[in-house]
Amino acid sequence: MVHFALRSNKVITNGEMIAACVEIKDQIIHAVHPHDQQLDCQVEDLGDLVLMPGLVDSHVHINEPGRTEWEGFNTATQAAAAGGITTLVDMPLNCIPVTVNKAAFQEKLDAVHDKLWVDCGFWGGVIPQNIGELDELLTAGVLGVKSFLIDSGIKEFPQVEADDIRKAMPILAKHDVPYLIHAELDCAHTPPATIGDKYQSFLDSRPKKWENDAVALMADLAKEAKANGHDTKVHIVHLSSAEALSSISDAKAQGLQFTAETCPHYLTLHSEAIPDGKTLFKCCPPIREDENRQTLWQAVEDGRISFIVSDHSPCTPELKHIDTGDIEKAWGGISALQFGISLIWTEAQKRGFDLVEINRLMSAETAKFAGLDSIKGQIAPGYHADLLVFDDRAEYEISNDMIKHRHKITPYVGKTVSGRVEKTYVRGQLVYRDDEFVASPVGRPLLKGKL
């Protein structure tokens, strides 16, 4: 049995930062003791390094099986561990087959064997063709499901219409799982825009109205479903348009289970600073103006936005059209899985946030959302010993050679950030230390009903 303890002057536990000694037995937090408690096990003193719950990232695209040239579980979960993420939840598209039925889900589970450096849950998908298979998919152990209201870019994962959503919502309410929505809706069926290498042209091609209309539609459908006795959990992924916040607030005020997330790229980047031809900044929905970014931060602070996740969405460098700078042809998605805590801490501390609050937004709230909050997201007795040792005073410059995800590209190269992950423990097992991976993959799949 593994038995040891970590002592620090800065331990985040029970919603505060205190001096404490955390005792770990057999992968579980055994006790949180006073700082100077004498124990009959090895005790490592971390001094002023912060000991916090490992992060839980509920929005990661890994693309295995089928598109491992984009990203696979081994490299993605290594990048997660390097970023202090001890649990992630994988998205159902960009892999082949897409995770829309029990058989496809089993293929994904077969693919993860011996590749997980952190624990991993899975979202399923809702497409028009699989409504009849949702019960079986959810019973198989996915933590919830996702749909697109616009072309996903993956032909096997088509968008849903309002009637599809109406059919799915009672099933999801019965299983008490969240319905994740990529909220862009082109009501006018706009002809494809000519974008070329101009970022502003790309931004104009996916206006805030698309997000605003999509969020409003989901609020209406959630209200309709609840009136019919189905209280479905609706969640807006990667919110970019601050104008959609009013619909989210209204839905909450009406008693609907209606939440939203945003991502480091929407909180740390803005369109005015993105040069033309820099395809690494392309994502959908797009990175918008600085004024919009400031309002998103206000919504994070006041709770209209529930938490922060990466939306790590990698592809090959060729698909990014880096050399040509053709934003129109480039695949959309930001790769930055391991840098999330540093990116957010850099911005957040300027705004008066403390690490306790940031950890809540990137660990406790995401664990709760994914239905993992009985075992993840807290340093408390009985919880998994998922731990992040963080130097909150360190600074470093992001470079290509430090990237752990498969392709050494990210829009953040050259950016100086605050806070560095020193060590990551998954269920009490050290997996990352001082830029090196330790031992072998110890992560395991997390299935609803089998935690």
Automatic annotation (TrEMBL):
Its EC number is 3.5.2.5. The gene is allB. Catalyzes the reversible cyclization of carbamoyl aspartate to dihydroorotate. InterPro entries: Allantoinase, Amidohydro-rel, DHOase/Allantoinase_Hydrolase, Dihydroorotase_CS, DNase_TatD-rel_CS, Metal-dep_hydrolase_composite, Metal_Hydrolase. It is an enzyme of class 3 (hydrolase). It comes from Thalassomonas haliotis. The keyword Metal-binding applies. The keyword Zinc applies. Belongs to the metallo-dependent hydrolases superfamily. Allantoinase family. Residues 50-431 form the Amidohydrolase-related domain. Pathway: Nitrogen metabolism; (S)-allantoin degradation; allantoate from (S)-allantoin: step 1/1. PROSITE patterns: DIHYDROOROTASE_1 (PS00482), TATD_1 (PS01137). This is allantoinase. GO terms for molecular function: allantoinase activity. It comes from the Bacteria. The lineage of its organism: Bacteria, Pseudomonadati, Pseudomonadota, Gammaproteobacteria, Alteromonadales. Keywords: Hydrolase, Metal-binding, Zinc. Its cofactor is Zn(2+). Homotetramer. Pfam families: Amidohydro_1.
